[in-house]
Amino acid sequence: MVRARILLRPLPGEAQDLQDWQKAGEQERPAARLSGLKLQRAKAWLSERPHQLSDELRGFVRASSDQAEAKERRARRNRRLVIGGLSGLSAVAVAVAGGGIAWWR
Fold this sequence. Notes:
The protein is an all-alpha fold. The chain has helices spanning about 1-10, 15-25, 30, 35-50, 55-105. The chain has one domain (about 1-75). It contains five helices and no strands. About 10% of the residues are buried.
């Protein structure tokens, strides 16, 4: 019921967000894009009723979605790098400990 009510009204706040994004300079635009719950709602609206959104609003939602996906890709990459680094460090620690035990005996 709540979801239906959200989708039947015209994207509350996103029109203002679009205006803010359009007025923002190139440096400010990434920070002016949609994220979180607003982005989820806008993407749902875009996929279910694309003809009800202006070209500008569709572009804004897509740019916001692209930015969110790029951020998630960077986060996954960083996690892999950290896990790989910790795995390598653990292997070195085990090798050093093993060498120390062998030398001590």
